[in-house]
Amino acid sequence: MAGKLRRLSVAMDEETNKILEELVHKENRTASEIIRHAINQYYHFRDISPESIKIYSELLYGREYIILDIELWIAMLDELNEKASDRFWENVRRLAEAHSWQIRNKGFKDLVEVMRYLEYENLFRVKLNGDKNVTLVLSSRNEQKFLKIYLESLLDNLGYRVKIIEGLRKIMITEED
Fold it and tell me: What is the rounded CA–CA span in Å between residue 112 and residue 127?
């Protein structure tokens, strides 16, 4: 650590002090090091909501999802969009149907909640246009066909009747009455 250290006195309740002592013992670090590290981590992650952390953890911890470099994802989609068989696209529809069962069990109340949850999979960013209207901003144009087929099947299986309109790097979804 660079620079002069400044002494600070911090009052802690018994439970917090017990946790700190356990960390000191387990990590073989001083209490000061642990507190400095905790403050630093808090500063860097303070804008991430606990709900976001929980959802990302659930997605990754269950090992049903992966982190994938965007350039690799685009290269895969380039190939799929050009050469994928009807069988592949039918598999995408079937997977969307299976995913609809998982999503249904999460108890979302509306289309926006479903899209916000799917946003954590990092395939798109959700832009709200009203209660029953969203725009999905895609990472790449290459995702359009894949996402349109996937979302049509997923939302249909969730009971949403929607109109999906493709832009250049966007998909607009409007819930129909």
Answer: 10
Provide the residue ranges of all domains of the chain, joining segments of one domain with +.
14-45, 50-175
Measured CA to CA, the distance from residue 169 to residue 177 in angstroms comes to: 26
Residue 65 has what pLDDT? 78
C-alpha distances in Å from residue 5, one per residue of 38, 52, 74, 80? 16, 34, 47, 56
- CATH number for the 50-175 domain, one of 3.30.1360, 3.30.1380, 3.30.420, 3.40.720? 3.30.1380
Mean pLDDT of 75-101: 95
- Give the pair of three-digit tokens for residue 67: 């982190």
More confident residue, 53 or 101: 101
Model confidence, pTM: 0.72
